[in-house]
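If your schedule permits, I should be very grateful for your opinion on a structural question. I have a record of one protein: its chain in single-letter code and its fold written as discrete structure tokens. Kindly check, if you would, that the fold set down in the tokens agrees with what the sequence suggests. I remain grateful for any guidance, and I place the record below:

***
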Amino acid sequence: MIHVYEVLDGKGTAVQTVAPGASVLEAARLMNTHRIGAVVVMEGDSVAGILTERDVMTKVVAEAKAPAHTTVGSVMTSPVLMCSPDSKLSEARAIMRERRVRHLPVADGSKLAGIVSIGDLNLADNATLTEAIQQMETYISGDPM
């Protein structure tokens, strides 16, 4: 059984963040630079929201708002769904599936500890399945390797 902290151990705990007063243009450029689909919106040490590609498309582009003059705080998703480092991947996946989100910030108590995406969960599941298949093949073939 894999936990979120194991995924973070592999991918790292860095999270790109912006303030609510930042422009959507700044946030979009940050997402482009880091090739990510979401940034966490922080007010001081607290998570205030999350801005995703979907937010930009539905709340800015589709409504013909100017990204340079629209603040992140006015279009971010809040409150934010989060999980803990001790959450099982199956629990994180269930949250993502049921709430139709692709990114979950990870909170350790009140501290932001990372972020996981559906792609991160898929990669972890794939690695686990690949390992299980290799073990089965070794067992079936009788190869002690």
Notes: The first strand starts at residue 17 and ends at 18.
